[in-house]
Design a protein that fits this description.
24 strands; Ribosomal Protein S5, domain 2; binds adenosine-5'-diphosphate; Rossmann fold; Heat Shock Protein 90; 4 domains; binds magnesium ion; five-stranded mixed beta sheet; alpha+beta
Length: 624
């Protein structure tokens, strides 16, 4: 620690920050070299901000020196420093940026990750907006000397050993910018070797938009990849570029190079990640998509531009560079600019075309993409009406006729529909296996009618909004008003009409208010009863989703369908003839009803169910 004098102020980290630092220092075992990527990326951000700031010319910024990042090393003393001539930080900014966790939820998120993976991958750290702190993986104490480019700022020194406190003091510093220096921990001394630093920069930071010097030597090659013709691009460098801009450490699944000249002109290189980013998976609810980077004439204007793509495509990473905006454009102008609207429209069309082509030419790749991002893309069905038809064609479903891991499109479904079939049937909720166990499917299975199995939870929100495809209405098989008259199969001997009517009356009387009605079933083959929704009722899967989202909802009443050919139902009718008051009849009816509820995931408590089951077993074992 520095000598204490009156000019040195000491600050304490907030509790959350302490925990986070502890996690970083003691749990990040893999990829310690990413500290360099993070520091370079911050330096580069600072330089971009300074460049953008002086371009947008609000007069408050002091002119900065040559934009560059300079690294110094001393392999003997294991000393390291990185300096940029960027925007710098004021005292408030130092406290806000290097003393607190910027994004809420970061700590919990990292802790959850650690519990899951045991070993926390240092590679991930940049995704959490806490990249700076990765220096504490390799250094015990860190010094940041900075001066803001804002007119009238002073030099400041920030120092911390990442243990709970940090200090700030005033220093002499003539030029705006930031210098970060420290000595490597004994076990990380290797990073003070030139070749090591060179390799890391090549690996992670080759595409930084500003020169990175080690001594006299420039380590990176600055190239605007997207400006070059597609035919000249090598997959390897494109992949490296993707990793650089996205913080992903996997290669992209695919990329799209776009060059448009006309009403607007722009070039773009866009990437599909292989997997949905963790944030997307963990932070559902606050789905904060990022969007590509916006460049104007090769100068970065916005790091994560939300206006370039519609929300349902914002998981696509990349760069869009246009000549049609001015360099000193402000965020507000970007947002409302007709140029942006035009770019977004063209890009959306190109991207959907790209997906379509992938689906036909690279079905394997498309499947990977659809698995990871299908649930997000589907949201477009409810928001992007211009492209609705294209999005509908992209939909893929499992069905009662698809093999494991295979999908069917609506087009294929319609193509193989039987001549008498007038509707497209779907069944939603849970996984394929669970869906297949539902008695409501029996009629369809028995008659060889294909049913789409909607296993993605998003489906219940978007699929019902597609009222029809190719003039065929889409219908949930839970709906009670499906026409079953075209069924061909012979049925087993059924309970006679004059006995069924009083039996159904006993069902109604026993189940009472809980149920809308009890009717004879035409769809069941091997199950005694099933629950279906009335014409205007909500699909049961939809109901469950609403419950999960804590929406207040009147409990939807169901219709119980009874299979008059089933042995249990035939036996019940026999029991009714012998003694209508036999309590076993009511017990059995309750049990059948709750069993049907259980099957569709709607039974809240199993206590009664189990005690009734025991009662019935007792009766069964007694009679032997
Ligand atoms: P992120 O870069 O994702 O915001 P970091 O932990 O890497 O998270 O950095 C935190 C913040 O500290 C940055 O957003 C920036 O405001 C500030 N900062 C870090 N390094 C520098 C630098 N070299 N120059 C100016 N500001 C910096
Ligand atoms: Mg950073």
């Amino acid at each position: 620690m520095s000598k204490k004098n009156s000019a040195v102020q000491e600050f304490e980290y907030k509790a959350e920050m302490k925990q986070l630092l502890d996690l970083i220092v003691h749990s990040l075992y893999t990829h310690p070299e990413i500290f360099l990527r993070e520091l370079v990326s911050n330096a580069s951000d600072a330089l971009s901000k300074a460049r953008f700031g002086s371009l947008s010319d609000d007069g408050r910024l002091k002119a900065v020196g040559e934009p560059a990042i300079r690294i110094t090393l001393d392999s003997k003393t294991a000393a390291f420093s990185i300096e940029d001539s960027g925007i710098g930080m004021t005292e408030e900014e130092l406290i806000a940026n290097l003393g607190t966790v910027a994004k809420s939820g970061t700590l919990g998120f990292m802790q959850a990750l650690r519990e899951q993976k045991q070993e926390l991958d240092g590679n991930l750290i940049g995704q959490f907006g806490v990249g700076f702190y990765s220096v504490f993986m390799v250094a015990d104490e860190v010094t940041v000397e900075t001066r803001s480019a804002l007119e009238g700022s002073e030099g400041l020194r920030w120092r911390s050993s990442g243990q709970g406190t940090y200090t700030i003091e005033k220093i002499e510093k003539n030029e705006p910018g930031t210098k970060i220096s420290f000595t490597f921990k004994e076990e990380h001394k290797e990073f003070a070797e030139e070749y090591r630093v060179e390799n890391i920069i090549r690996k992670y930071s080759n595409f930084v938009d500003f020169p990175i010097y080690l001594g006299e030597k420039q380590l990176n090659s600055i190239t605007a990849l997207w400006q070059r013709p597609k035919s000249e691009l090598k997959t390897e460098e494109v992949n490296e570029f993707y990793k650089f801009i996205s913080n992903d450490f996997n290669d992209p699944l695919d990329y799209l190079h776009v060059s448009v000249e006309g009403a607007v002109s722009f070039k773009a290189i866009l990437f599909l990640p292989k997997e949905a980013p963790m944030e997307l998976l963990y932070r559902q609810g606050e789905l904060e998509q990022k969007g590509p980077q916006l460049y104007v004439k090769k100068v970065m204007i916005q790091h994560e531009c939300r206006d370039l793509l519609p929300e349902y495509l914002r998981f696509i990473a990349g760069v869009v560079d246009t000549e049609d905006l001015s360099l000193n454009v402000s965020r507000e102008i970007v947002q409302s600019s007709p140029v942006m609207a035009k770019i977004r429209q063209i890009l959306t069309g190109k991207i959907l075309g790209w997906f379509e082509e992938m689906a036909t030419e690279q079905p394997e790749r498309f499947r990977t993409f659809y698995k990871a991002f299908g649930p997000i893309v589907k949201i477009g069905l409810n928001t992007d009406f211009t492209n609705r038809q294209k999005l509908i064609e992209l939909l893929r479903f499992e069905s009662t006729k698809t093999a494991e891991g295979e999908y069917v499109t609506l087009k294929e479904y319609v193509g193989r529909m039987g001549a008498e079939q007038k509707e497209i049937y779907y069944h939603s909720g849970g996984e394929k296996k669970q869906l297949l166990a539902n008695p409501n499917l029996e009629y369809f299975q028995d008659n060889g009618i294909e049913v789409l199995l909607l296993s993605d939870p998003v489906d219940v929100f978007v699929i019902p909004s597609i009222h029809e495809y190719d003039k065929k209405p889409l219908k949930s098989i839970e709906k009670a008003d499906i026409d079953f008259s075209s069924g061909t199969k012979e049925r087993d001997e059924a309970v006679a009409e004059n006995l069924l009517t009083p039996l159904l009356a006993i069902f109604r009387e026993t189940l009472g208010e809980g149920i809308e009605d009890v009717v004879e079933s035409h769809r069941l083959v091997s199950s005694p009863v099933t629950l279906v929704s009335g014409k205007d009722a909500m699909d049961s899967q939809m109901e469950r989703m609403m419950k999960m989202m804590q929406q207040e909802m009147p409990a939807g009443k169901k219709i119980l369908e009874v299979n008059p050919s089933h042995p249990i139902i035939r036996n019940l009718s026999g029991m009714m003839m012998a003694d209508e008051r036999n309590p076993l009849i009511r017990t059995t009816i309750r049990q059948l009803y709750e069993g049907a509820l259980l099957l569709e995931g709607g039974l809240d408590s199993t206590t009664d169910f189990v005690s009734r089951m025991n009662e019935l077993i007792e009766a069964a074992t007694l009679s032997r």
